[in-house]
Every structure is written in structure tokens, then in C-alpha cells.
């Protein structure tokens, strides 16, 4: 059961040690302050892949949506997802599917997500190209974006297949922020315990 899996993953996040890094993004509808989900990024250590878990609600049933990290953080309360700039692409490669290697996708290319019969996306994926430790590939202080349409992985033959996967307009987004380590009481960023509580509240309102 998907919900159970997400719960187990969240519980495992609570157990994280000192060296692990976690980041969170609160997802809002494009150009509004309507909150529709949360995405967590968790990396155990510098050599581990990044686990991405989350939930996004309020979509049309059984629809497929491109999902990417875009280059820029939204600043100063900006809500327009277009302000996030292009796909995060530090190596100047062509757009590609999540399964591709570093030379055949943008670092920010996370493929597609599918909304279920209730219009809910449950996110559970692991990626070895995005990173929280490696400065060049770090997705912190960037923006995660959900698109209206399927990402064609660069293979669709449309003029924008090699840049955006022809995924259409940006329908929702959220800035990815590193979470503080629990012992760091001076930081302004949210505590991991607060994030997990919020996450459960969204899962089981
Ligand atoms: Cu995108
Ligand atoms: Zn891309």
C-alpha cells in the first residue's frame, strides 16, 4: 500500500543521523498561494542517491505530468512558476528522461508523475544525479515544477522536446529548501520534526 510505504519512508527520515541531508518543497498552484502538496528530498550521505517522497493533490484523475527541478529559486514571495527559469542544467546537456545518465539528461530531469483515480500523486523515487551535497548538482535553493503534460524525455520530435520535453505549462511549483539539523537552533529553516508533522497532516487530514 502506497500510503504505508510513504509512512515508513517518513519514519526513516526521523531516524536520520548527523550526516544526512534533507530538503523540503511546499508545492503551490502556479501564480496562487493555494498549497497542494509537499515533496521531501533525503540523502543519507554524499555517496548515496537522493530519495524523493511526497504527495501532490488536486489534479485531474489519471493524468501524467512532467516533473523537473528548475534552475532558480522563487524569490520575495514570487508565485509565478515561470520565474524559476529553465531546467536545472549545470552541464549544458540536452533534455532527457530520468533514467538517462548524466550526459543525456538535465540534472533537473525527474521524468513523469501520474495522478491516481483520486487526482493524487504519490511520489516515491530514487535518483543518483540530483544531489544535496555536491554543489554543482545540488537542488537546494532551486524550484521543483509540475507540468500540465507528459514529458516526452526528449524523444517527441517537437521543437521543445530537447529543452523541456514538450511538457507544457507549469501548473504547480515550490522552492526546495534545505532543512536544518535538529541541533542547529539558530537556523531559520524549518525543523525536520516540523516538516514530518506537516507531511502527516497532509496525508491524513
Ligand atoms: Cu519543468
Ligand atoms: Zn530537462
UniProtKB/TrEMBL annotation:
Signal peptide: 1-19
Enzyme Commission (EC) number: 1.15.1.1
Reaction(s) catalysed (UniProt annotation): 2 superoxide + 2 H(+) = H2O2 + O2
Annotated CDD domains: Cu-Zn_Superoxide_Dismutase
Keywords: Copper, Metal-binding, Oxidoreductase, Signal, Zinc
Coiled coil (UniProt feature): none
Superkingdom classification of source: Eukaryota
UniProt xrefs under Gene3D superfamilies: Superoxide dismutase, copper/zinc binding domain (2.60.40.200)
The UniProt record lists the keyword RNA-binding: no
Cofactor: Cu cation; Zn(2+)
An MF annotation (GO) of this entry: superoxide dismutase activity
Cofactor note: Binds 1 copper ion per subunit. Binds 1 zinc ion per subunit.
Residues in Superoxide dismutase copper/zinc binding domain copies: 37-176
Keyword Transcription among record annotations: no
Functional description taken from the UniProt entry: Destroys radicals which are normally produced within the cells and which are toxic to biological systems.
Family, similarity comment: Belongs to the Cu-Zn superoxide dismutase family.
Annotated protein name in UniProt: Superoxide dismutase [Cu-Zn]
Species assigned in the record: Rotaria socialis
Amino acid at each position: 500500500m502506497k500510503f504505508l510505504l510513504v509512512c515508513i519512508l517518513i519514519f526513516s527520515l526521523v531516524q536520520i543521523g548527523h550526516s544526512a541531508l534533507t530538503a523540503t518543497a511546499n508545492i503551490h498552484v502556479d501564480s496562487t498561494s493555494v498549497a497542494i502538496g509537499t515533496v521531501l528530498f533525503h540523502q543519507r550521505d554524499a555517496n548515496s542517491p537522493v530519495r524523493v517522497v511526497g504527495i501532490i493533490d488536486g489534479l485531474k484523475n489519471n493524468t501524467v505530468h512532467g516533473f523537473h527541478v528548475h534552475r532558480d529559486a522563487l524569490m520575495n514571495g514570487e508565485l509565478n512558476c515561470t520565474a524559476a527559469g529553465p531546467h536545472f542544467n549545470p552541464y549544458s546537456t540536452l533534455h532527457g528522461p530520468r533514467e538517462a545518465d548524466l550526459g543525456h539528461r538535465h540534472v533537473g530531469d525527474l521524468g513523469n508523475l501520474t495522478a491516481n483515480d483520486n487526482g493524487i500523486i504519490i511520489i516515491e523515487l530514487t535518483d543518483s544525479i540530483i544531489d544535496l551535497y555536491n554543489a554543482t548538482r545540488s537542488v537546494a535553493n532551486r524550484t521543483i515544477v509540475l507540468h500540465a503534460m507528459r514529458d516526452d524525455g526528449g524523444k517527441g520530435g517537437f521543437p521543445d522536446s530537447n529543452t523541456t520535453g514538450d511538457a507544457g505549462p507549469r501548473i504547480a511549483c515550490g522552492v526546495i529548501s534545505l532543512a536544518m539539523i535538529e541541533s542547529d537552533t539558530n537556523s531559520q529553516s524549518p525543523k525536520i520534526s516540523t516538516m514530518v508533522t506537516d507531511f502527516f497532516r497532509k496525508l491524513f487530514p
